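Q: Structure for this?
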Amino acid sequence: MDDSSTVPTHPDAADPSAPRSVLEAPDIARALTRIAHEIVERAKGADDVVLLGIPTRGVFLARRLAARLREITGHPVPVGSLDITMYRDDLRMRPARALARTEIPGDGIDGRLVILLDDVLFSGRTIRAALDALNDIGRPRAVQLAVLVDRGHRELPIRADYVGKNIPTSQRETVRVLLTEEDGRDGVLLGVRGQSPAADGR
Amino acid sequence: MKRHLISAADLTRDDAVLVLDTAEELARVADRPIKKLPTLRGRTVVNLFFEDSTRTRISFEAAAKRLSADVINFSAKGSSVSKGESLKDTALTLEAMGADAVVIRHHDSGAPHRLATSEWIGGAVVNAGDGTHEHPTQALLDAFAIRRRLVAGPSGGLGKDLSGRRVTIVGDILHSRVARSNIHLLTTLGAQVTVVAPPTLLPVGAGVWPCEVSYDLDAVLPTSDAVMMLRVQRERMNAAYFPTEREYARRYGLDGDRMARMPEHAIVMHPGPMNRGMEITAEVADSPRCTAVEQVSGGVSVRMAVLYLLLGGSEPAVSTTRTEENTLA
């Protein structure tokens, strides 16, 4: 990847660092379908799989993946959400933030294969928080991780079991996942960290 | 930087909705096998109670413990306060012990404000009831109960306020900090508030409050979505505010006949503790329309939300800092 981040960014210039699209809607759809097949293969039928999405976009990914798993296996796959806000290790570095919904499927997670879903895997701190949160909810048989984008730069010994796309990035770059349910369209944008830290892919 | 919750009037609509939404999510933690979150690990919350209280103190204690904070309970009885220690010296002691938040109940109006603006302590101050001034967390949990019963749709009322709901507050408005906080908060959330009381139990300035004033309970009942019965505070009734308790109960008490005149969906609320047979009959108190128990259980969630939003981040998520400029009501 050519690292155009050496070009100084001018806030007033017309899009000096315009976000570049790295995944389009069909790419995302294909990646999810492939992940679904990998899950069925590795979990030998995905009978005891529970999908838990990490808000916000991980939840939508989990729902999409559940629909594909159902098509493949023929039986419904429990899907829920896991809010990790209260378990973050950077709570004291930012203002207290609003909570998202934690929705555990009716049968719980005890003895099941829990697959966590998130949009971008970056430092790994979100996943560490998710593992802590899971610990307070039950005792899964195993926990696996599926992400749409792995952008590298791990700060903890955490890796994904299923990856939609590996995108090597520099620390100055931002990865932004767009999903129809939240953003009106599907796509993954690669930009340069500018004035909007909100676009940080964690 | 100060971060406090002294008055319900300091909360904007968005702040109040954020507290209610956060409480709604935190309420779900109570259904889990492990009812604890690690969020305030290592923080110390002091419950500083100069006045008797059961449910408020226990509720704050449970809330802080569920967020993994360390809790120190301090009640004036049996402490050095009974030897004449001043609020300042008590506060300095707490500061020396490293309190991150002080939840204070005091018999004098303004004590929490003094504590928050004095520079005696660096932590957050949460008003748990001061004299006849305010009790903001009670108002928040009342709003929480109203939203759950009267607004909640499939989303549990998330993001919604109380627009268009009519709330009637009945009883000793003069001495009630619950009424003051509720009038401010419910109005901020878009509800229409009517206070009903004998003229002797209304403060002189009630006319400037953002609410209607009535002396006739029966006239207001048919148009109320929620009726909040306040406790007749016998300990404050040394002056003759009404001729007899029986006359008060007859004119301003809620019995089965009166409840039947309320709209079918309307709820009866009571901040507790109840005087059965005085402001509320046993028939009403035990009916499914009475939310008194829900108000208590929601109270823990609401107080967890307040503690989280004030202490959980690097700065509070609710903009309650204006208290510093506010003068006392």
